[in-house]
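Ticket #4471: structure output looks truncated?

Reporter: J.K.
Steps to reproduce: submitted the chain below (664 residues) through the standard prediction queue, then opened the result file.
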Amino acid sequence: MKILKLNELCGIKNQLYSQQQYIVSEKEKGVINNFFDINSLFWSQIFNPSAVYNLVERAKNELNNDNSPKIKAILKQPQIFLKTVFIALKKLEGYVNEKELFQSLESLEILCHLHTKLYSRPHTLTLSQGYILSKFSALDMERNCLLPFYNPYLDFINKKVMPVILSYEPSILIMTGRPNLASFTIAKLVRYKIPNIFIIAGEHESDYYSLFKIHSLLEKNTAFFSVYNCAIISNYHNAISKIKKWYLNQSNNDLNNIPGIIYSLDNGSTIIKTNIQSTSLTNNSAPLHYTDRSYVYNIKVFSQNHCYWNKCSFCGINKKYNDLENQEWNYTEASLKLESLYKRGINRIWLLDEAIPPVVLFKLATCIIDMDIRILWHVRTRIEHQFINKVYAKTLFKAGLKHILFGFESASNRILQLMRKNFENNNYLEIAEKIVENFTSIGIQVHFTAILGFPTETKEERDETIDFLHYLHRTYSLFSYNLNIFYLDIGSEIYHRWEEFDISTLSFPCSPKYYLENHLDWLNSVSSKQTDIIYNEREISMKQQFEWYPEDSLIKPSIFFSFWEYSRYTLYSNDLKHNNLSFYSKQPIILSSDVALCKMEHDTWMLYHLSNHHYVVGGNILLDLVNSSKNKECFCTFIEKYDQPYKEKAKNLLIQLVQKEFFL
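Returned output as attached by the reporter:
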């Protein structure tokens, strides 16, 4: 009996920190330790040097009339663009800072943009998602997954994935990640070729997605179980172990004694859900064979525990768990897990626990100090008055805490009450700021998450939250924040009491029995009019954290931050702030070799920096600047050539270009 595990086809976030996955490979790696990394294989083909060269050559032939600044710059200096792409791929193999990560991702996103224009339309390819495809309806995916026009992954799956699977001849196929069009395609094709195979949907848990949340819908999902045999909704490792034993002796034809699964042995005609036991997540998501110490290790140290607060009306994280009572926080056992990792040479660790109580966190830190575990680590918790105690912050810092995330959510007391986030603290903002002050003053990076667009939230209340976060960011150098748009989780209290939150409509985009997502669209008297406004406010506000962020980037600030968080580079970075650059008058004008000069419409010119992706558009002054760079004139000479008001324009242009790092 052979077991084969596949990951999902999606974006490249996993590749940024997992040694088990890769972005570019000289050769196809195939199956390693019963795991076939099809997502890395897909992206390594997109970023294969010959494929990149061919893509740029095709762009030179077919996109000459495109007015996009990025494409104009690429066509003007294709060799420079190719260089930036290959540098970006190399940088992503190791540690990069925030700015370098963005620059690398933007170069690769431009490549995806070209791929979309030249190869995959109407399907859009992005770094964050792979191909953007609907994945909410099992029926739609089952019906359409083998149609070439509907499925841009089909050719890749047929040519690169299926031959490996068929050659391996697995008895059990485990499809990890969220079920999507590509996983439906593979499962359906495999069942045609290997009729007796047992196909499992498993290892799909994350903060925001779990099949457990929709298990009552899955019991009716005939389309899903016409392709999959089984979905594991709790206790993954225990269920897999028992399924292996069952597969070897199917004479009883009975899976009912395996808890935590939903299964069908007749292509969805009969769907059976077994008893659900207490649920725990996989103990860690780090590489199976961890050897490279440059990566951050991910682990849930309190593997049987959920968020201790468990009251927030918007949150569905704890709905991944069946047993929410009688939690015991065994900080001694947790510290032993960390000690074991440290002895293996792993010294950067990202705790995946949903939220750890302040007292438990303090005791865990004390154990780390007493056991002399020298690590840098990240943790999540919530705003609590105990963290005002400076002893907490000092102890955590001494224990190696580098980065701490607090679920802040809102600065409006009314919204906090609706969120069931804050019941007693009328001085919530004072406590929040004091926590930031205490932690950042001793060198711990503090991150707040917040939600915009909560039901009934007004523009004024939303501005309260944004303004408070901006204030903290201006005041405390090691503070950052993330703004999320309200997400109506199917596992949340709001979903079950939506009428109490002024929600007029809940909308399933397909028949509920086929629904595979974890969130629903919703409407009230405000949301339909403000959705686009809120999204725009979110991007503008997120961007204010990064003064180096260019205009018109393909990678939006919220998407970039998710890459930054998921890559775990925070445990390497020193300071979240960047100093503005200035110039002196005798400085020679020497433009970077990565800058492209392009003729635009209406007698204007553009300078585009193909490494950092800033650009400026101007008239004759910009063209004069390029000529001055060739002659290596100094800044003052260039400025003095002009009379007012052009002298001031020339000076402002130089300041702008210096701050955007156009000069050597």
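Triage note (M.O.): checked the attachment and the full token line is present. The longest strand covers residues 401-409.
Status: closed, working as intended.
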